[in-house]
């Protein structure tokens, strides 16, 4: 990962919203945020430790992970710890992908930097948003899966299927059709792809939008795919059985993952570098 040179201020832009405070955060894409140190250091154990190693004149941290430490995520983080606001829009209620662009990445940031209280509160807010219809089941499922919060994941799958949303509303067909610039299937098949499946639920793995697939850990996608097939099979009862099948399959997947992790850990070196990708100045 590329680290920004703090001496080269030509590449650093100041955020208009967070412009005051005694602590500086610089995002991986070069945006500078100023905030009150007491709010920041209360929220994060890891950032508190990093701040202790920074300069006494102006404490600052430069982030390097472009995926979860970009300006949009730092802005969402600061809004959440100062105002309790999550990046889910009430104006987009009913859109299955509402919040998917930032919310899962925000909770990953909270987890990475040991914002334990903030992360727990964020997941409570997600479940409450799910109950009130502000947060879609798809967004709640992906967000919960991102940090292994199975309470939120099962709450999402247990929601009324009528609130899940249709795949046709979740993703432009342009992404799918871009894979078929030279269409090998003929005009009839091409028309079918362009129209999409109007009745497909976004929690059907075969119809789930790419933004959800790309952020969901493998064991959750695997369990949902198998559970969906089983629930929709001749012996299943549709969505009514989905949650039960999913929980059993996810448990099996996690048991397998734990076994594999234990095997890997037994052969790994004693010295492991820090996973926190930041530099202090």
UniProtKB/TrEMBL annotation:
Superkingdom of this protein's organism: Eukaryota
Protein name: BTB domain-containing protein
């Amino acid at each position: 990962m590329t680290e920004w040179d703090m001496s080269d201020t030509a590449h650093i832009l100041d955020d208009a919203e967070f412009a005051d405070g005694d602590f500086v955060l610089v995002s991986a894409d070069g945006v500078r945020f100023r905030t009150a140190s007491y709010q920041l250091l209360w929220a994060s154990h890891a950032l508190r430790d990093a701040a202790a190693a920074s300069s006494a004149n102006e404490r600052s941290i430069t982030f390097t992970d472009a995926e979860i430490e970009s300006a949009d995520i730092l802005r969402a983080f600061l809004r959440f710890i100062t105002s309790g606001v999550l990046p889910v829009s009430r104006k987009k209620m009913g859109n299955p992908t509402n919040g998917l662009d930032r919310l899962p990445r925000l909770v990953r940031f909270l987890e990475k930097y040991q914002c334990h209280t903030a992360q727990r509160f964020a997941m409570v807010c997600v479940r409450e948003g799910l109950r009130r219809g502000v947060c879609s089941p798809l967004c709640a499922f992906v967000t919960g899966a991102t940090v292994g919060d199975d309470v939120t994941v099962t709450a999402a799958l247990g929601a009324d299927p009528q609130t899940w949303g249709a795949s046709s509303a979740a993703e432009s067909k342009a992404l799918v059709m871009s894979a078929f610039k030279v269409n090998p299937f003929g005009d009839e098949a091409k028309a079918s792809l362009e129209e999409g499946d109007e009745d497909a639920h976004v929690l059907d793995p075969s119809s789930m939008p790419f933004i959800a697939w790309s952020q969901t850990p493998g064991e959750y996608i695997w369990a949902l795919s198998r559970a969906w097939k089983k629930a929709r099979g001749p012996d299943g009862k549709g969505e009514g059985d989905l949650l039960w099948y999913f929980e059993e399959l996810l448990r099996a997947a996690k048991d397998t993952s734990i076994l594999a992790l234990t095997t890997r850990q037994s052969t790994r070196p004693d010295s492991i570098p820090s996973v926190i990708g930041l530099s202090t100045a």
